[in-house]
Recover the amino acids of this structure.
């Protein structure tokens, strides 16, 4: 299951999975693009390993890397509580 985390001003959606049994959390980034349909990338926490990168520049990936690092503690917490909506209702 993927949970919403944040929507940026350019309609980029950042979602995350529940914490996997091995302690990993999948962070998925998707941005609509008129030409290509969507740009997307996956980052796995806590290692910050990237895969399935399509359409993003190096500068964009650096931005997302920093954004995820700045919020990793929240993403990891929410991944254990059923997403931000469940975490805020507890």
């Amino acid at each position: 299951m993927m949970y919403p985390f944040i929507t940026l001003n350019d309609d980029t959606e950042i979602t995350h999975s529940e914490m996997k049994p091995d302690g990993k959390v999948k962070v998925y980034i998707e941005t609509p693009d008129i030409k290509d349909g969507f740009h997307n990338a996956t980052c796995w926490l806590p290692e910050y390993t990237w895969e399935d990168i399509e359409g993003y520049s190096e500068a964009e990936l650096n931005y997302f890397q920093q954004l995820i690092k700045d919020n990793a503690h929240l993403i990891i917490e929410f991944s254990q509580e059923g997403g931000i909506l469940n975490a805020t209702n507890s």
Summary: The chain has one domain: 2-85.
